[in-house]
Amino acid sequence: MTNRVTLTDSVLPSLPAKVPQITAVFWVIKVLTTGMGETFSDFLVKHLPPLLAVGGALLAFAASLIVQFRAPRYRVWTYWTAVIMVAVFGTMVADIVDFVIGIPLGISTVVFLALLAGVFALWHRREGTLDVHSINTPRREGFYWATVMVTFALGTVAGDFTAATLHLGYLLSAVLFAAAISLPALAWRYAGLNPVLAFWTAYVITRPLGASITDWFASDRSDGLNLGTGWVTLAAAVPMTALIALLARRSAAPPVIASVD
């Protein structure tokens, strides 16, 4: 395995880091993007012809990934724009599987889970690591974004599965996923859980957590507050944009050099 990784790194061009540092702000933005992606997707499909909504989201999704892949290094706005478009388009893909094709939520959850396991297995077999801090070659970046896309689709159907099929509703689903996302963090900190496994477990759970929260606010079902997808999307987008702008400002700031008296 070591020889394979060494060979891969020597053959493929090495890139500067293409993903952000994993901090508390990262997790907050991630949850906000998942929630906003859920309601914004619903808003577009409701207010535009479905083909136009899905087609436009597909084009924006593809364009954002092209820009991300062509970027020479991690750029705050480029990266998070790609994440946002994955959230929006990933929601649409999951909804098409559910509402258009008609695959039951339980089955689609298992299918996307198996697909995610397959991506992870192929990624690890080819690269020898799933660590996001190792995203420094084009192929690893491709595996990373394929994983991100599948996690969004998986999280969407998993959230709908708990809310609808298991009849927990959006609020109890949000509580369930909020409790679940704390488990890998606690296991990593106090029980020695592998940090890569802890990261990807929490990453998957951010999707149904954020979507359940915004669905609870937006939905006109009996278990929702019926605030509307447009307003809830805006409410999530404002702090999300502010935090991304904060990261961009920090990234652009020159390093502070301590003076020696």
What is the distance, rounded to the nearest whole angstrom, between the alpha carbons of the first and last residues? 50 Å
Percent strand? under 5%
Dominant shape:
globular
Element string (H = helix, E = strand): HHHHHHHHH
Number of separate helices: 9
* Helix/strand class: mainly alpha
Radius of gyration: 19 Å
How many strands in all?
0
Provide the residue-averaged pLDDT: 87
Q: Major sheet: size, sense and barrel closure?
A: none
Unreliable segments of 5+ consecutive residues: 1-13
Oligomer: single chain
The portion of residues assigned to helices is over 70%
Your description of this structure?
With about 260 residues, this protein is mostly helical. It is built from 9 helices and no strands. It has helices at about 1-10, 25-45, 50-70, 75-100, 105-125, 140-165, 170-190, 195-220, 230-250. α2 (about 25-45) packs antiparallel against α9 (about 230-250), α5 (about 105-125) packs antiparallel against α6 (about 140-165) and α6 (about 140-165) packs across α7.
Give a concise summary.
The termini are far apart. Helix 4 crosses helix 6 (138-165).
Structural descriptors:
261 residues; mainly alpha; globular
What are the SSEs and their pairings?
Layout: H1 2-11, H2 24-47, H3 50-70, H4 76-100, H5 105-127, H6 138-165, H7 169-191, H8 195-218, H9 229-252
Helix pairs in contact: 2-3, 2-4, 2-8, 2-9, 3-4, 4-6, 5-6, 6-7, 6-8, 7-8, 8-9
